[in-house]
Design goal:
This protein is mostly helical. It has a domain of 44 residues. The longest helix is centred in the middle third of the chain and has 25 residues. The termini are far apart.
Length: 105
């Protein structure tokens, strides 16, 4: 009897999600744009080292650290979005129909 109850409870449990979702890599133009932006950002930070204001070195250094922090944030963003999880909307049970009202005619 207990075996039949366990079997009935298992049939109501939805199947587990897939172990590894499908991933979509960035397309070539997107990768080129990201790499170009990264190259320009690195060039800018190296160029920026020569533009420190000698009358306000502390402020210049703080600004440079903030700019380096921004580059680190960019690198983390690129790492997270280089390969995106492919997703699609679930299908509906039936067709969607309804009345569309045009208030601004």
């Amino acid at each position: 009897m207990a075996h039949q109850e366990n079997k009935a409870n298992r049939s109501n449990v939805p199947p587990p999600p897939p172990a590894h979702p499908e991933f979509e890599p960035l397309r070539v133009p997107q990768r080129l744009l990201a790499l170009a932006f990264l190259a320009v950002a690195l060039w800018y930070l190296f160029w920026r080292l020569g533009t420190f204001n000698p009358d306000a070195l502390v402020f210049s250094a703080m600004l440079y650290v903030a700019e380096c922090w921004g580059l680190a944030s960019l690198l983390l963003h690129l790492f997270m979005t280089w390969t995106e999880c492919a997703s699609s909307a679930p299908r509906t049970a039936g067709s969607i129909s309804g009345r569309v009202c045009h208030h601004l005619q």
